[in-house]
């Protein structure tokens, strides 16, 4: 009896699944058909306008229809969106149609946003906003501010995002644009969701829901309910999540809105995944996957791929999970979504660890750790900045109200005073004269205070840049190798790696430790120069001795790549410099040359003794550099890092340090290079001449 009951249940679930599949397929076809119908309607209107007797390309109705058609292609065909945006912008400029020009820039921003090119999207949204502000188009101004804030949110600049969202709400509240108010509340909620502050996010989502219920637009309400469902799922309030997502799905299926339906199916899959019902989770994920074949929404697809990866892992189908995880990783890299990179690499590290492919597992673990630490290190700062920005914005707004009230009160007082002192004009003249003198004194004092503040701000900015650079190098170039070392030791300690396998990683560990040591030496030297703790002590220095010591120190690295180091420094070549700083300069230039010279290459170090200076050079026949890279090499705030011919890592600090130390020794540094033809670094140092000895 139990076996029959089990078979009956399986057959029932199979039939039910097939029926649901057929339903979803019909919905997808109907949705695409509906969207085609919308496009056909717009195209028909465009043809009617073009066929009219008095048709002109400057007709604003014609341009509006082109923009409407462009928006129909968003999430479906971005190339068509771009073509129509260009055409509408060109026609709007010729017709002097400001609203068309603003809307065209807005659609350009949407195109680059969906392509993951955030900076270009920000540039076009900024153009649209500036034009809307210039011509006082308040609705377009508020809606553009919302999209501009959203891009800063994608970029991770949460304080800027919140600032623009609040500005958009202020405009929308002033002119009673309820739809914009609700949309902005939804988007602010997403900022708090990024910080995992679900309660604060829910406050804004419920505000948005209340507005939509007041307006009575079921589509807008369904959008907010789907976001509420996702938030409830993250809070593990799964019954509430399922209730809200089912309402949203019913609305979007009825209205046949493809991109939102794909999102809702993905949320429903997430709910089942949290319920540990992996088969049903995969069912809804696959429905979303079918819809994603019809739309272009890479950001939404990344969450879908990561969700499917987790479901397949739970079902012990690691090979399928690997495919989805790799797709999520590649797509996240393409659009620069760090959260997607973190989630996908965590799963890939787990998959390859289970496959006993420890090298790949370690590689993905390093990427995960670096991304996780980067996000964790900035999350508190982002949350604090969001709070500070919001408080500052509220304070500024309140202060403006108080200032206005105070100004009105003062204005009334001045009127009464003016009536009273009209009879004592001589006294008023005296008071005005005295006030003018006092104002001049205050202005002078204000200018002096402003100058002091600017100087202090510049000093604090320099200190902040130094701190940021130190933390960046420590976090990126020291934590990575140390984290990999810890991960390797953990695998060995827990018995997941044999002694022989561990020993195979010893050469890599030695390279990592040598890199850490070299980085620390540079970091300490650079830190001294930035903190005004490094004093240059000139003395007679034998250049050939310093070069020989560094060649001996780096000979092992040269032998590993079979690189020939040629020393053409003449014996007893003396210069007037700080020997410790010259040692750091020579070591960095030789280390860089070894890094970018291929196996079996050659590096030459020599010196040309001139009348007053010694011109020292380090030449290699390595990979060379482009003009763009050369122009950034010696910039003070540059942190340019390039991998060597054998994937050697660097900090991007060495050449900046070299430049500072060469200049402290009264010299100059420059480089000649071309791609594929090697590089030649030159620097000058004053020679040791007789007059130095006589003065000594």
Could you write a compact summary of the structure shown?
With 696 residues, the protein is α+β, with helices and mostly antiparallel strands. It has helices spanning 2-51, 60-72, 78-95, 98-114, 118-134, 138-155, 158-175, 178-194, 198-215, 218-234, 238-255, 258-274, 278-292, 298-314, 318-335, 338-354, 358-420, 425-493, 499-504, 506-530, 543-560, 579-596, 627-632, 654-664, 690-695; strands at 539-542, 564-568, 574-577, 602-609, 613-620, 669-673, 679-686.
List the SSEs and their pairings.
Blueprint: H1 2-51, H2 60-72, H3 78-95, H4 98-114, H5 118-134, H6 138-155, H7 158-175, H8 178-194, H9 198-215, H10 218-234, H11 238-255, H12 258-274, H13 278-292, H14 298-314, H15 318-335, H16 338-354, H17 358-420, H18 425-493, H19 499-504, H20 506-530, E1 539-542, H21 543-560, E2 564-568, E3 574-577, H22 579-596, E4 602-609, E5 613-620, H23 627-632, H24 654-664, E6 669-673, E7 679-686, H25 690-695
Parallel strand pairs: 2-4
Antiparallel strand pairs: 1-3, 4-5, 5-7, 6-7
Helix pairs in contact: 1-2, 1-13, 2-3, 2-4, 3-4, 4-5, 4-6, 5-6, 6-7, 6-8, 7-8, 7-17, 8-9, 8-10, 9-10, 10-11, 10-12, 11-12, 12-13, 12-14, 13-14, 14-15, 14-16, 15-16, 16-17, 17-18, 18-20, 21-22, 22-24
Task: Write out key terms for the chains shown.
alpha+beta; disordered C terminus; two-stranded antiparallel sheet; disordered N terminus; 696 residues
């Amino acid at each position: 009896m139990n076996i029959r009951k089990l078979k009956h249940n399986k057959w029932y679930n199979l039939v039910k699944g097939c029926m649901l599949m057929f339903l979803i397929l019909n919905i997808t076809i109907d949705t695409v058909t509906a969207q085609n119908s919308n496009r056909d309607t717009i195209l028909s209107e465009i043809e009617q306008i073009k066929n009219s007797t008095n048709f002109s390309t400057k007709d604003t109705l014609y341009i509006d229809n082109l923009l409407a058609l462009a928006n129909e292609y968003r999430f479906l065909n971005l190339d068509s969106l771009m073509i129509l945006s260009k055409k509408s912008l060109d026609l709007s400029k010729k017709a002097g149609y400001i609203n068309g020009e603003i809307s065209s820039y807005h659609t350009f921003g949407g195109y680059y946003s969906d392509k993951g090119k955030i900076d270009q999207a920000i540039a076009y949204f900024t153009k649209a906003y500036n034009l809307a502000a210039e011509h006082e188009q308040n609705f377009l101004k508020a809606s553009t501010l919302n999209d501009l804030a959203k891009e800063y949110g994608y970029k991770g600049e949460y304080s800027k995002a919140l600032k623009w969202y609040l500005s958009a709400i202020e405009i929308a509240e002033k002119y009673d644009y309820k739809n914009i108010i609700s949309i902005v509340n939804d988007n602010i909620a997403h900022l708090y969701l990024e910080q995992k502050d679900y309660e604060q996010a829910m406050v804004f989502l419920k505000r948005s829901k209340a507005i939509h219920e007041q307006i009575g637009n079921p589509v807008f309400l369904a959008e907010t309910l789907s976001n509420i469902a996702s938030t409830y799922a993250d809070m593990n309030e799964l019954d509430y999540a399922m209730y809200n997502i089912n309402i949203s799905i019913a609305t979007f299926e009825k209205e046949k809105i493809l991109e939102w339906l794909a999102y809702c199916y993905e949320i429903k899959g997430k709910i089942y995944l949290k319920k540990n019902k992996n088969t049903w989770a995969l069912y809804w994920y696959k429905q979303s996957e079918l819809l994603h074949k019809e739309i272009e929404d890479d950001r939404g697809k990344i969450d879908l791929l990561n969700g499917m990866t987790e479901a397949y892992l739970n079902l012990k189908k690691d090979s399928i999970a690997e495919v989805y995880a790799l797709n999520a990783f590649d797509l996240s890299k393409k659009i620069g979504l760090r959260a997607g990179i973190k989630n996908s690499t965590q799963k890939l590290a787990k998959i390859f660890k289970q496959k006993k492919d420890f090298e790949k597992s370690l590689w993905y673990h390093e990427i995960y750790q670096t991304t996780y630490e980067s996000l964790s290190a900035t999350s508190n700062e982002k949350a604090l900045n969001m709070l500070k920005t919001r408080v500052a914005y509220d304070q500024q707004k309140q202060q403006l109200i108080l200032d206005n009230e105070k100004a009105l009160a003062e204005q009334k007082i001045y009127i009464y005073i003016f009536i009273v002192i009209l009879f004592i004009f001589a006294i008023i003249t005296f008071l005005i004269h005295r006030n003018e003198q006092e104002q001049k004194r205050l202005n002078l004092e204000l200018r002096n205070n402003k100058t002091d503040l600017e100087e202090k701000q510049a000093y604090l900015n320099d200190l902040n840049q130094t701190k940021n650079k130190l933390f960046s190098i420590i976090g990126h170039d020291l934590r990575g190798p140390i984290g990999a070392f810890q991960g390797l030791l953990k695998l060995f300690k827990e018995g997941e790696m044999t002694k022989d396998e561990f020993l195979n990683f010893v050469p890599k560990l030695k390279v990592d430790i040598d890199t850490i040591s070299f980085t620390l030496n540079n970091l300490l030297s650079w830190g001294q120069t930035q903190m005004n703790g490094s004093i240059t002590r000139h003395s007679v220095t034998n250049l050939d001795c310093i070069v020989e010591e560094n060649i001996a120190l780096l000979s092992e690295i040269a032998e590993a790549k079979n690189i020939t180091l040629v020393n053409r420094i003449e014996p007893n070549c003396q210069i007037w410099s700080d020997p410790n700083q010259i040692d750091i300069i020579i070591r960095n230039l030789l280390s860089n040359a070894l890094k970018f010279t291929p196996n079996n290459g050659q590096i030459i170090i020599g010196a040309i003794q001139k009348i007053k200076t010694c011109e020292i050079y380090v030449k290699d026949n390595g990979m060379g550099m482009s003009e763009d890279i050369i122009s950034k090499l010696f910039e003070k705030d540059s942190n340019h890092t390039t991998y060597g011919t054998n994937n050697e890592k660097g900090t991007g600090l060495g050449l900046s340090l070299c430049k500072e130390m060469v200049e402290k020794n009264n010299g100059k540094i420059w480089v000649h290079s071309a791609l594929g033809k090697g590089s030649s670094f030159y620097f000058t140092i004053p020679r040791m001449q007789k007059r130095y000895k006589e003065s000594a």
